[in-house]
Amino acid sequence: MKTARNFLPKTLAGLLVLLSVLIFSASCDKSDMLQETNLEGKWKLTGSYISIGGPQEFRLAKGSKDYIEFKKNGEFEGDVFSEYVSYTIKDSITVQLMKRDKTIQNYIYKIKEGELTMGPAGPIYCIEGCSTVFVKVRSGS
């Protein structure tokens, strides 16, 4: 037999769970989640952040046709970082590029609003900070 005493706490608990799920779902944009992890594909160079000791400056790569491509099978190619032939995603922010002779270079990467930013993360680093910026090339472009 249901009583008001047993019914009310269970109903409130259920409503709280439902409200929590709705708030969590609303705070996550599915397209952003997919975009954050989708390194695969072709990326066109747009510019670089560089510094000679002061704040970083963005240098636009005007008219550049340079690109990089992360292939599904782990191969890597392009005009930028052209000495590398394969890649491995180490974690959510680090990609490891490998040369034919198995020499590796780690890069910190971030994908935000369709823009990929990569900066060296060892064994070679930029003391003042540096990174290269790309935009995703749509299929058929």
TrEMBL record:
Keywords: Signal
Database matches in InterPro entries: Lipocalin-like
Claim: Heme is one of the keywords in the record: no
Origin superkingdom: Bacteria
Signal sequence residues: 1-26
Pfam families with a match to the protein in the record: Lipocalin_4
Name of the protein in its database record: Lipocalin-like domain-containing protein
Organism listed in the record: Daejeonella lutea
